[in-house]
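Render this sequence as a predicted structure.
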Amino acid sequence: MSKWVIELKVVGVDVLYRRIVQRMIAKIPFVEARNYRLKGRRRQYIAIVALNLFALMGGCEIALLAHVIGMVWSVLPGGVLFFVLCMAYVKLLPRVVYAARLPEIDVAKLLGRQVVPLKSSKAEKALRGKCILVTGAAGSIGSELCWQLLNYLPGSVIALDTNETGLFDLLESLRAHPASSRLRATIGDITDAEYMEQLFALHKPDIVFHAAAYKHVPLLEDHPDQAIRTNVLATYRLCVLAQEHGVSRFVFVSTDKAAEPTSVLGASKRLGEMIIQSLAQAGLGDTCFCAVRFGNVIGSRGSVVPLFTKQIEQGGPVTVTDPEATRYFMTIPEACGLVIYTAALAAQGGLYVLDMGEPVRIVDLAEKMIRLRGLREEQDISIVYTGLRPGERLHEALVAEGETLVQTTYSKILSVTYRYSLPTVKDIACWMQRLEQELRHGEREQLRRRLLSMIHEYELAPVGSPARDTAL
């Protein structure tokens, strides 16, 4: 056998004949695509896996050796039956990808609970005919939020983002929507104070959904300056503009990482929550400030589900940080429904979370995804543990010390009541000035320490003092 011998990895094989026939009928491939550099040229080959007699009787799958150039098969057990199966099911096609769709994954099965439908006639009344500003509109949450908002027939939706391509894609995806003419794609940066002042003066939004933020934990550990500039200072300026321009409601999108934060992302989002709560407590102006905490949003960019999907389609391995790591998960429609529902019904200074059930082990999620694709973990797709990345923790919490979850009038939305004191508006303004100064001169580690220390500068209220109730 010549030197051009390669081993093709076997994927998607089920040893039971009944399941094999089902896969053939459903057009689910026993296939894996790989690029190989042969004689200086890159050519792509696809192999549909053949089974031998022992596999049909319940044995293990075969490692198939192919002589690609000459298309000569190595001798394997199975005799005539194997030869027939090869003739029937094995194809080597240069430069062609055989790509029948793998089964779609049911999100409810991944979550281990039913997806929560969030729609309210009260929300429709609150949003109809209004001018709505959505920051971060080109992101996974922002784009879905724009789509859902258009269903409530607002006067206009100002979709703001720095991502020009993302905004173009948003416009194209909504072209067929009956209310697409109400969408205004706007290129702009929330950190540009002068531009945002002009935007508020021009459009005079009634409601603001503030979803724009940097969100990736390990990246922000290396870039605390960007987290402060975008997640903290820009949020503060937007809140001030909302008050100055008479915005009726301002909804801040936070994260469960803001509860007892240990990362730059969590600390920046917790500081954003404190800005919202302090302005609401002060009661200056007519703007109703509220916030929602998200769990991990399934399907959003950078989340584990798209990553696992890609890794499975490539034949593995699937990478998991730690076998004990858990997260709370929610779908993109759930996340956006929660934001809209909160905007319509939240109390001043309210902080809300979705009832996401029990936290899910990430490795369990990976195993479910592998099985729902008709494959088997370790045998077809391996799982590799990579270790926690900077800023990550094993388990997330929905509330911190001094906070309690209470039921609202809507069974699937929980309100966070708190027993701690908050900084005054004057304190918040001083913090913002200090952060701006340190951005000019501070080192990254110094900025990280400053950010984490600020959220602990307030003290818990004395035990026995009444909790602040912001239930719907």
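Summary. The longest helix spans residues 224-244. DSSP finds 16 helices and 20 strands in the chain.
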